[in-house]
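Sequence in, structure out.
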Amino acid sequence: MEQFDAVDQSGKRMGRPSLYSQPIHIEIVMGPSHDEALELIKKGEGGMGRRSREIQQGVDLNNLIPVHNENLNPPANIHCLLLAVQLKILYVNLEKTNVEKKKFHRLINGQNKRAKIERTLLIKEMLQQMPRYGIRYPTYAPQYTVEEHVPLIQRFLDLRFPGKYRISVFGEQGRIRPIWKGAERAEHEIALYLKGEHYYGIRNLNALFGSYYCIDCEAPYTQKYAHRNKCIAKCPRCCGIGYGFPCKVIEGYSKKCLQCANTFKNPDCFKRHTEKGICKIYKRCEKCGHIYRSKKDSAVTQKSDSESTDDSELTADTNNNGHICFIHYCNLCRSFHKREERCYVQPLIPKKEHEYLLIVFDFECELISPTRNKQEWQHLQNNALMPLNAIPDDENYQVHHVNCALLMCSRCIRNDNWKNEKTGRCKTCGMDMPRMRTWTAADFLNPLREFLEWLINGLGNERSWKTYAISHYGGFLLLYTLFSLLI
């Protein structure tokens, strides 16, 4: 709270509204201990043994399907939940043509009589169909909640459209995990968004979180290939992923593959794994039960994809492409060891540093001392820019001279050579160039234009490293004038 008070006090001095003028949502995330992390990994939660974060983020209104039922006749005006489900079902089955898109847009946003009648019919249709399937959905309720009424709609969809739709409801405050989600996977996801006791449809979950999102893992991800390896909706036998996976077990069916030693409980799963060549990639160790990735000419152990099913001693199989029994890949320490061995998070390896050029510029003033900067002082006198003829004796005396830029690079900063007057033999800064450059407005010249010309062309167009130009309080006026010259 002391940090909040400090920020609030600083904002008041700058004329900003108080930090406490609006409700504050605080999320506290605690990491698990070593033992808890291992238990989470065994359960397949999170993959890295960490709990999902609760984040604050804005919601793109263009990604939500608006649900306008407030101006409909009763009881349709209180059934935004049913209308949101119906509109989302229409959206997932919508043909990707301009004509159909315009019709759907008129349906959800139209305020004419026809659009209102169509939205009302969508609500009435679901209210009339539910009793036929034995679902007692209240027509008039004070409030339609996620915990009580969404499961009724999911049950109706399961009975009328088996395996077709699954409902998931997300809420405010940017929570990564849904508030509620149907138990069984389906062909289409009916994602809804609850905001202020009103339901909206979500056009695309990826756009909602700003990255790829897996509804089964209930987590966002950035790399598709890495996520496929640990997704819970993946079959470990045939590597199928998504709707219909993992493959269901068929009673009485059991077939062992002679190439990979895996036992299959589904004929389609066995056929799929042979057609896709999974035998050549994943194999099962008959000694310890591990399913590991096989690589040719591998001299190191490979990452295991399943737990051990045997308690025998540690054995090495040199014929299994480097696989060692009861050794698994740990995501905590990023190394191979036995499951019962403790491990710790390894330190981060710093990335290779890349050279860069740094230019710090200010178009307000440069401080030049007559005793410390005699050459610059003489240059001012020769160009009639010095207001005094005699050199002052005071060492603290300095002349304010506008428009300057300091040139340095990462290597000169590390070697402490950036303090020298010239760059010397540095190839990044330029050979034997003055570090401090100044420009003047004399002779009706534009210092800003000269600075840009020097920055873009004067330093050499052949340089391949990055150049960072940092201004002193440039956000007030300087950067605007520079951008205007660039445009």
